[in-house]
Design goal:
Blueprint: H1 3-6, H2 10-35, H3 39-59, H4 64-83, H5 89-110, H6 118-123, H7 131-150, H8 152-160, H9 162-167, H10 172-194, H11 199-202, H12 205-210, H13 217-242, H14 246-264
Helix pairs in contact: 2-7, 2-10, 2-13, 3-4, 3-5, 3-10, 4-5, 4-10, 7-10, 13-14
């Protein structure tokens, strides 16, 4: 089938629009993930979603809500553990990730017969994007964008100096858990498009690439959004053309941007 003909199908247009919204939302969040060194957190929460998928598969439930609850619980648990200073953040993430992953694998293995949608959850799929997913992704993208613009100075202060922000009297704990919750929700929503195994890269690479071009936070965010947006749409179109998993194509586009930024970026 010709590529132009494919674009006439509703599910293809939904996938491209979802990729664009995902690019904007992840581009904004990526700056804070990189600045606060939450890259491992993003990957940890993403991989822990196997537990949510396992629950949904075992009981034949819709996947989204178990996955969302799992993401929020894991991110909150890591935040709570590291707050007590008894275990380092990377250790806490490793422990919760391992537990959730093992739990999910056990649950999936208890399901008798072939689990047809398991590959979709791991790698993402064009067919998985439904109209209600677009609405949810649109609302989430709007929420993240408006929050970033509305509270930019406070979020910037927190990103660079959380202790100074706390001394200034701002609710650092609320900001931290709010950021972790947004991160968890974003990962749960993005899972359908990018897949569990690759969604973490979407929250790290855009800002990492943008950082080679500017040292100004505002410009880094805009460039991060631009890189993520182009990679999401370009990767989705590449996925349609070559009939490859959407998540893999998008992440390869992101990695290309990172490589070019490393070579040609002004701050290299």
């Amino acid at each position: 089938m010709h590529f132009i003909e494919l674009l006439s199908y509703g599910f293809v247009l939904r996938a491209i629009l979802a990729a664009a919204l995902l690019g904007v939302a992840c581009g904004v969040l990526s700056f804070f993930v990189v600045q606060r060194s939450l890259a491992f957190m993003g990957h940890g929460v993403a991989h822990s979603l196997v537990a949510g998928v396992g629950i949904a598969v075992l009981f034949d439930w819709p996947v989204f809500w178990p996955v969302l609850i799992t993401a929020i619980l894991v991110s909150t648990a890591v935040g709570w553990i590291t707050e007590r200073k008894q275990v380092s953040e990377d250790s806490a993430i490793g422990i919760t990730l391992s537990a959730a992953l093992a739990f999910g694998i056990v649950l999936v293995s208890l399901k008798k017969g072939y689990v047809a949608d398991l590959e979709t959850y791991l790698f993402g799929s064009l067919l998985a994007v439904l109209p209600q997913d677009l609405v949810m992704l649109g609302v989430l993208t709007l929420l993240i964008s408006v929050t970033a613009i509305w509270k930019w100075k406070l979020l910037l202060m927190f990103a660079f100096d959380s202790e100074g922000t706390a001394i200034s009297g701002y609710p650092v704990r609320v900001i931290r858990y709010g950021l972790l919750s947004l991160l968890a929700i974003m990962i749960a929503v993005a899972m359908k498009i990018v897949g569990i195994l690759l969604v973490g890269a979407f929250l790290v690479i855009p800002a990492a690439a943008a950082g080679f071009w500017s040292a100004r936070a505002g410009r880094v965010v805009w460039l991060s959004v631009l890189f993520a947006l182009i990679s999401a749409i370009g990767g989705m179109l590449l996925s349609i053309s070559l009939d490859t998993p959407a998540g893999a194509a998008i992440v390869l586009m992101l990695v290309t941007f990172f490589g070019l930024s490393r070579i040609f970026g002004r701050l290299n």
